[in-house]
Amino acid sequence: MTDTGKAHTTSTSSARREGSSNSSPSGSHTLESTTVDHCVDDDYDEHARWAAARWPEVEEVVEAIVSRVDMVQRHIERASVDTRDQLGISQGELKILLRLTRGARSQGDIAKSLLVSTGTMTNQLDKLQASGFVVRSPDPTDRRGKLVDMTPLGRETLDNYVNVQAKRERQLVSGLSPHEKSELNTLLRKLLASVRDEAKARESSHP
Question: In this predicted model, which residue has the larger pLDDT, 5 or 3?
Answer without folding.
Answer: 3
